[in-house]
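My hope is that you will study the protein record below before we discuss the fold together.
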Amino acid sequence: MIKSLISGLLAGVLDISFYTNDMNVFAVISYHILKIYSIPLGIILHLIASTIIFAVAVLIIEKSKINATSFISYFILGIMVGSSVLALFSLPVHLLIFPIKVTLTYVMGHIFYGIVGYLILWILKNKI
């Protein structure tokens, strides 16, 4: 569980790089949740959400007895997790609650988040 939390946090940190041209997205997130318009606070909220969501996704996958055995299987599971987070969580929340423009960068950022998270998890489980 700790390894999946670390993986989700690091994937969330790297996911922020997709939004360097529009850091205002994080201020919008913090405003809609806490009524404080703050980019750093939005980044913290993003990191909390990415950590929890990734850990829950890994827990669900592990409980369903899906075992990744190689780099390729972790990569594929990462694509699946990233696209699932996009479809099941981020799009509904960001389209219905937070009015954030959905762009190709937004979509690729979520898929990147899943891939990086699972590859970090692979490193933590197999190399350390």
Remarks:
- The chain is about 75% helix and 0% strand.
